[in-house]
Design brief:
The complex is a heterodimer of chains A (436) and B (113).
Chain A: H1 2-16, E1 21-26, H2 31-34, H3 36-44, E2 48-53, E3 62-63, E4 66-67, E5 71-75, H4 88-96, E6 100-104, H5 111-120, E7 122-124, E8 130-133, E9 148-150, H6 159-162, E10 170-172, E11 177-179, E12 186-191, E13 196-199, E14 211-212, E15 217-223, E16 229-233, H7 241-245, E17 248-249, E18 257-258, H8 263-274, E19 281-290, E20 300-301, E21 305-316, E22 319-322, E23 329-334, E24 336-342, E25 344-345, E26 350-356, E27 362-370, E28 378-387, H9 402-423, H10 428-435
Parallel strand pairs in A: 1-2, 1-5, 5-6, 6-16, 20-28
Antiparallel strand pairs in A: 3-4, 7-11, 8-13, 9-10, 12-15, 13-14, 15-16, 17-18, 19-21, 21-22, 21-26, 23-24, 23-27, 25-26, 27-28
Helix pairs in contact in A: 4-5
Chain B: H1 2-19, H2 22-48, H3 53-77, H4 90-111
Helix pairs in contact in B: 2-3, 3-4
GO biological process, one term (chain B): protein N-linked glycosylation
Transmembrane segments (chain B): 30-50, 56-73, 93-112
Family (chain B): Belongs to the DAD/OST2 family.
Chain lengths: 436, 113
């Protein structure tokens, strides 16, 4: 009996935590210790982490067509080749099928990492290159100015991704990323300051560095069109216990000393975003009807008033709660949008608006397309048909044609009057003749 | 130039008043009324635009048609033209006039919308 109960509980538990299954690939198992605070914070939030060395020959993401993990953490910057059935194609397919990835690089990043990030829209600088900043390095730097301090001002303005405003700057030691500015899905979460550049620390600079100034991205993010999220950090040390607890002080100009870096807070917010705890929206019920009615009709007629309601929910702590926003727009489109209005947020996450159907008939779509930084892409399209007026729905008498109606009737009246006068007309001579 | 124009007009008006029989004068008054209605309608259409074009056409055609029929009646009833209309007595002319009017107004009512 107890066995059956425990079996059922286990089944339920595995069902509830399906979204928290995470595979962690490590260069060497020492990383598990040096990043213990980071991993502990994940397990505290309910993630079930599976640690594997990256060249393990039994690595597998999917079994019998089903993915075993929803999230992937690649903390193995210097990997040359993945073990088991993992490969760049398998990881790319993992993202295409909706999986989320957190990747950390370092100064000695392998080419495999370059290939994976290239698929996601970022370029990792060449092997051996580090982000160097001669004006913003920490007091604890070893002399090469590679342990840099990234200010809060260089953080992207997206509370969904990076959380609330941070007070301390961040410590960073690693390689730089270059994000394609033309790509609309790529976000530069943390950039270096304008005095930074990315080059091999020990070589003379003979050619122009690949990344210079604010173009050097330290942490980049991507939300794919299927809402899968990828975050790439150029520094594995960013997530280490050492950086989490270290104080921050810029070496030059007597910089202010902060007792604790902002790394832990930022990595918390980033993992909440990338593993789809925050900023996830979904569309619930969509309904439309004529103003004053309750059910959706078979078709609408032009110039009618129509009411549209959509329910949007947000994920908060594993529960779907009503969402609130003031800028969700509705488009009433027939090839081109005829009506574009803002939806009013009501109680319990139902957004509603009322508008007048235009004077043009056809097949329309009610489109809600909500794309905001940090949120999943929301797309909803409902098709409705709008018919022209029936023959009996037109006005019977047109006011501007009244003069014409009047003239036609007056002509008829005129003929009638004229014919009476004409037939009974008698001149004086005729009356005289008659009287004789 | 203007002197001769005014003399022509006054002379025409005097001749008309003296020589035209009263029956024809009645038809002339009726024609003038139709003319006025037609002109007013046309001016209204020029001002407001041709929106219910069918209504405009119908009203205008009713004026024009009535004018034409009344003019024909005047021609056929005028005793000076008796030579040209030997087979058509004034009563027959009036009957034709009424019949044509019935057809005209039927068409106008159908087209006016």
């Amino acid at each position: 009996m107890a066995l059956i109960y425990s079996f059922i509980v286990l089944l339920l538990a595995s069902y509830i935590n399906a979204d928290k299954e995470t595979l962690v690939l490590l260069d060497n198992l020492a990383i598990r210790e040096t990043h213990s605070v980071f991993f502990k914070s994940l397990t505290d939030r309910g993630y079930s982490l599976v640690f594997k060395p990256v060249d393990d020959s039994n690595l597998v993401l999917a079994k019998y067509g089903q993915y075993l993990y929803k999230n992937l953490i690649i903390f193995s910057p210097s990997v040359e080749e993945f073990g088991g059935s993992l490969s760049v194609e398998a990881i790319t397919k993992f993202v295409d099928d909706g999986g989320n990835i957190l990747i950390a690089g370092s100064i000695n990043s392998g080419d495999v990492l370059r290939e994976i990030t290239a698929e996601c829209g970022f370029e990792v600088d060449e092997e051996g290159a580090a982000v160097i900043d001669h004006l913003n390095y920490d007091v604890l730097d070893q002399g090469k100015h590679t342990l840099i301090v990234a200010d809060n001002a260089n953080l992207i303005d997206a509370p969904m991704i990076v959380g609330a405003k941070k007070t301390s700057p961040f410590l960073f030691r690693g390689t730089g990323l270059i994000a394609d500015k033309e790509n609309p899905l790529v976000l530069e979460v943390l950039t270096a300051s304008s005095t930074a550049y990315s080059y091999k620390p020990d070589s003379h600079i003979e050619e122009y560095p690949h990344a210079v100034g604010k173009n050097t991205v330290l942490i980049a993010a991507l939300q794919a069109r299927n809402n899968a999220r990828v975050v790439v950090s150029g520094s594995l040390d960013f997530f280490s216990d050492e950086f989490f607890s270290s104080p921050v002080q810029k070496a030059l100009q007597g910089g202010q000393k902060y007792p604790k870096s902002g790394n832990q807070e930022l990595s918390d917010s980033l993992t909440k975003w990338v593993f789809k705890e925050e900023g996830v929206l979904r569309v619930g019920k969509v309904s439309h009807h004529k103003a004053g009615e309750k059910d959706a009709p078979q078709y609408y007629t032009i110039m009618e008033n129509m009411v549209y309601e959509i329910e949007i929910e947000k994920l908060a702590k594993d529960k779907w709660v009503p969402f609130d926003a003031k800028d969700i727009q509705l488009e009433f489109v027939r090839i081109d949008p005829f009506v574009r209005t803002v939806l009013q947020s009501g109680t319990d996450g139902v957004f509603r608006t009322e508008f007048k159907i235009p004077d043009v008939y056809g097949v329309y779509q009610l489109k809600v397309d909500y794309t905001r930084v940090g949120y999943t892409f929301l797309n909803s399209a409902t098709q409705v048909s709008v018919r022209p007026l029936e023959h009996t729905q037109y006005e019977r008498f047109i006011v501007s044609a009244f003069p014409y109606y009047a003239s036609a009737f007056s002509m008829m009246g005129g003929v009638f009057l004229f014919s009476i006068l004409f037939l009974h007309y008698r001149t004086n001579e005729e009356t005289k003749k008659k009287s004789e | 130039m203007t002197a001769s124009l005014t003399t022509v007009v006054t002379k025409f008006y005097e001749e008309y008043a003296k020589t035209t029989p009263s029956k024809l004068k009645l038809i002339d008054a009726y024609l003038f009324y139709i003319l006025l209605t037609g002109v007013v309608q046309f001016l209204y259409c020029c001002l407001v635009g041709t929106f219910p074009f069918n209504s405009f056409l119908s009203g205008f055609i009713s004026c024009v048609g009535s004018f034409v029929l009344a003019a024909c009646l005047r021609l056929q009833v005028n005793p000076e033209n008796k030579g040209q209309f030997e087979k058509i007595s004034p009563e027959r002319a009036f009957a034709d006039f009424i019949f044509a009017h019935v057809v005209l107004h039927l068409t106008v009512m159908n087209f006016i919308g």
